[in-house]
Design brief:
It is a single chain. The radius of gyration is 19 Å and the shape is globular. It folds into two domains: 1-77 and 157-231, P-loop containing nucleotide triphosphate hydrolases (Rossmann fold), CATH 3.40.50; 90-156, no CATH class. The protein has helices at residues 41-48, 71-74, 93-98, 113-125, 141-154, 171-188, 199-205, 223-226, 229-236, and strands at 3-12, 15-21, 30-35, 56-61, 64-65, 78-81, 159-163, 191-195, 208-213, 216-221, 238-244, 251-258. The longest helix has 18 residues, at 171-188. By secondary structure, it is of the alpha/beta class. Helix 4 (113-125) runs antiparallel to helix 5 (141-154) and helix 5 packs parallel to helix 6. Strand 9 and strand 10 (216-221) form a beta hairpin.
């Protein structure tokens, strides 16, 4: 799989949010996009998923511009979990997850044996089998997020995009979701691309980190390469100590002050 953006510009009205983005997504890795609020992280994610159309440039998947591909064919390659997804009241977990099979159906075609197998697999992998008949509104926040991830992986794509998947979850559920995504990457070879705010979670779970400032890539590489005091100063405007976490052997970021202006 080869997936990258080439000279991408994105604007909202007259405001240019992303400029000349050239970003390559490593296959089979966990890539995390970081940056201050308003830096363009979610906008970049939406452009890579074809939710937003760039003013200029291309997003290429295996030699083809994703903006020229059919929606159904692209949905067999890419799945996305946006921030705060919504569903109709009363929808059960299994019904939600079954929507992931839509790209493989003609019109309102019934689920076949392969569809049911993929749905059962997605429920099992995400630990949601016992909640299959439960309405989404009856679940905790972490359980609902697992149900949405089950929907995405029942879609059976190579690439999974997630926009702040741990937002509004307590620390236990945050770890639960990130360990699930790590398992999907390591054991099921899913390429994961996501936006996360907590830099220490980034350090623990990311293989590749992309730092964004004002719509441009400031630096990218391993957590050790990107999460340095100088980069944190430049990207977030904070002074921070970065030490080695003795348990994970990954960087541990300890911000201690703001910089008045960037």
């Amino acid at each position: 799989m080869e997936f990258y953006s080439q000279n991408v510009d994105i604007s909202y009205g007259k405001n240019k949010i992303v400029e000349d983005l050239n970003l390559r997504i490593p296959e089979g890795r966990v890539t995390v996009i970081i940056g201050a609020n308003g830096s363009g992280k979610s906008t970049i994610l939406k452009a890579l998923c074809r939710i937003l159309h760039p003013d200029r440039g291309e997003v290429i998947l295996d030699g083809k511009n994703i903006y020229t591909q059919s929606t159904k064919e692209l949905a067999k390659r890419i799945a996305i979990l946006p921030q705060s997804p919504e569903s109709p009241e009363g929808l059960t977990v299994e019904e939600l997850v079954s929507y992931g099979r839509s790209p493989y159906k003609a019109g309102y075609g019934k689920l076949d044996a392969q569809d049911k197998e993929k749905i059962a697999w997605a429920l099992r992998v995400t630990g949601m089998t016992e909640f299959a008949d439960r309405a989404l509104e009856q679940l905790s926040g972490g359980q609902r997020q697992r149900a949405w991830i089950a929907l995405c992986i029942s879609q059976d794509t190579e690439i999974l995009f997630l926009d702040e998947p741990t937002t509004f979850l307590d620390i236990a559920y945050q770890l639960d979701i990130l360990k699930l995504l790590s398992d999907l990457n390591q054991n099921y070879k899913k390429t994961i691309v996501m936006v996360i705010h907590d830099l220490n979670q980034v350090a623990r779970f990311a293989d590749h980190v992309v730092a964004i400032k004002k719509g441009k890539i400031t630096c990218e590489g391993s957590a050790e390469e990107v999460l340095t005091p100088e980069n944190l100063k430049q990207v977030f405007g904070v002074l921070a100590d970065v030490v080695v976490d003795q348990r994970s052997k990954r960087p541990l970021c300890i911000p201690y002050d703001n910089i008045p202006s960037l």
